[in-house]
Amino acid sequence: MDISNLSLAQLKELERILPKEIMRREMEEKAKVRKELEAFVQARGFSLGDLVGNVGVERGRSSRSGSKVAPKYRHPRQADLEWTGRGRKPKWVEDWLSSGGSIDQLLI
Q: Lower CB count within 10 Å: N or C terminus of the chain?
């Protein structure tokens, strides 16, 4: 794919939409593969749980639930302002972006 002829605005738009699209497609692909695996093992009289167990699953929750996530973003002038990149953007991130700053400038 040749992107050398795209404008800066087009590249920034791609940068904005690509992570969401990649995540969506990964989820679709995982669901497709899981369905194929379930059909494969079911045809042989098993379930996925029989073969791999319920690794990391307890009452429908991942073993990672409740674990602390490392921050991904930090304010360049106030090191105590950090954000994991999950959930709603904090006010300081919104302020940074509205003043013309880039989210990439906040990466740790």
A: N
